[in-house]
User: Which sequence fits this backbone?
DNA sequence: TTGAAAGCGTTACCAA
DNA sequence: TTGGTAACGCTTTCAA
């Protein structure tokens, strides 16, 4: 970092203590209760207009901001919905889903907070989340066990929702079974007459949650057909792809499900550079239906993935919070369908 | 969403109240103070081993989890570092930077929280953040004014750091001037002999913070050279790119800075489909140095962007928190250099 | 080694 | 219409 000469230190704000509602009350010449009434527009109590004005003015003068912790301590509950911040960079698909969710929850007057649980794992992380006493917890991926769910519920969470491959006892589940993604691709490749199918499995850590089920899905699709499935570990690097392409003929594959569109692009480029014709010699199928697939030549066939709408999930959360008695819901939310273009 | 039949409602957990340290004390047959000592490993006080065991056991039996709000209320401070959650989907570059930052802050024992300020703007958002009494606030982009900084500081934030195009009075600044990105591209294109340069400006909302300075950077680079700069609004859609490519010859451009690698890919594909030779007829330069640029043919020239290391920023935050008296630091942190490949 | 009590900032109940 | 007071869960000082 390049240091730029600093401004002169401004006349120190005297490290003056943070103003509280008591300070506002004192300045306005009223009680703390009155301050609370005025600032929260409590309808059960009528406060005279001059008093209101004095309170508001005092609050503004002092730069008073209420203390959320104190408030929720007193109230006994908060409207915080907590999600762990994703550790691995996450694609545009998930980003969009998440910001939709965040908007929808915001409209329902919840506050969404992503908690950076760097290094914490599983039920250990659950404890850290529980300390914040969120009203609901949304957990993508696997890693949260029934223990963790229990901890969260016992500490007041009225809804725990997992977004992942399997149900967890006690939690609502949005099942996102990536097996389906691989399965669609497998069915498609088989229908296109491919008999020896490779499946790219990224070597980057953190992607196993997706890549394993996708691989299994292909296997399942090809199970009865007599076609073979070959696992292809691949790092997201040009050289790795080139090495894989170099031994392609020896592998004898006539089709490949490349995990997603980005790996597909990487592999397809390497194959073409190695003189393998796509789709004639080898069909390539990606997943995620990103824009880039449409820009490749040949245009990339891909598995379009349908995530649940953020609004639906927000409503599930809201429902669960209002009626914590109801049993946990389970929804299958991952839609997968092949978009057939020119690479297969 | 497809509803799956729910399990039978489990014997309701009786909506039993959340266990407090008082409950633990009662069960262990000690006072609340002792519980606190044991669970926090307070070194100033020696507690007998049998007592410790009883307390730990009671805590585990009850599933006791301390209440973060109560704790920080009592302590008068927290170790929460707050960032607004990005509203627009953010690329892999920023994702990596952020998760590095999060890890580094975690190692310094801070808790990183991304706050979903859906809909809130500027100083209004600052108030919402201030309610959480974070010890530090990191704000990417513009939008936070001196007012907002003041609100945050008065409510106890010991460090406010902006990551954006300009300094804000009272806050530490990590200046990320995207003008530099455009400038590098402009200098490069001029050096390659291009005289009529187009600059793609995405139509997607939320990207102006980056696209405007990048455009200005190109203008600045080309200012003295007699070369022209043409603004090219472009939506991230194939049709929009095709329309732009269709009138390319009429625009008479011999070079284009395409905002970033993804827009560059979009535009380059459209140009090639329209029979415009890249780089012979028109040079194309992207930005971000993503993998995909290396996979295109011709390989995409791009502006490699260097973000500060998450560790450096974490240390800045830590320093600022420990010594809030020191004046705000300003650092230029955005490095930009052209990676020349085959498209220019 | 342990316990009693005060206090952090809020809000809600009950009196005045 | 307003104010006093208690309570939320926790930590820490002081006393025993």
Assistant:
């Amino acid at each position: 970092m390049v240091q730029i000469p600093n401004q002169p230190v401004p006349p120190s704000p005297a490290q003056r203590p943070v103003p509280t509602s008591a300070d506002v009350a004192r300045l306005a010449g009223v009680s703390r209760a009155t301050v609370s009434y005025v600032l929260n527009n409590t309808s059960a109590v009528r406060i005279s207009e001059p008093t209101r004005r004095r309170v508001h003015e005092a609050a503004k003068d002092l730069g008073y901001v209420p203390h959320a912790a104190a408030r929720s301590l007193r109230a006994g509950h908060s409207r915080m919905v907590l999600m762990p911040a994703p550790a691995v960079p996450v694609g545009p698909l998930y980003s969009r889903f998440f910001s939709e969710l965040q908007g929808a929850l915001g409209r329902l007057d919840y506050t969404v907070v992503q908690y950076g649980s760097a290094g914490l794992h599983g039920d250990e992380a659950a404890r850290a989340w529980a300390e914040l006493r969120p009203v609901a917890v949304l957990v993508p991926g696997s890693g949260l066990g029934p223990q963790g769910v229990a901890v969260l519920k016992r500490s007041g969470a009225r809804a725990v929702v997992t977004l992942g491959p399997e149900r967890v006892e006690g939690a609502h589940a949005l099942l996102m079974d990536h097996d389906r993604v691989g399965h669609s691709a497998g069915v498609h490749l088989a229908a296109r007459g491919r008999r020896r199918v490779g499946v790219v499995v990224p070597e980057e850590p953190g992607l196993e949650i997706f890549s394993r089920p996708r691989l299994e899905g292909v296997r399942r699709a090809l199970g009865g057909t007599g076609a073979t499935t070959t696992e292809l570990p691949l790092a997201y690097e040009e050289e790795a792809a080139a090495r894989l392409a170099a031994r392609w003929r020896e592998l004898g594959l006539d089709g490949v499900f490349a995990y997603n569109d980005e790996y597909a692009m990487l592999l397809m480029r390497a194959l073409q550079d190695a003189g393998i014709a796509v789709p004639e010699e080898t069909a390539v199928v990606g997943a995620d239906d990103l824009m880039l697939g449409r820009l490749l030549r040949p245009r990339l066939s891909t598995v379009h993935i349908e995530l649940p709408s953020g609004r639906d999930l927000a409503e599930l959360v809201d429902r669960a919070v209002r009626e914590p008695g109801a049993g946990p819901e389970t929804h299958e939310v991952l839609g997968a369908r092949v978009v057939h273009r020119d690479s297969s």
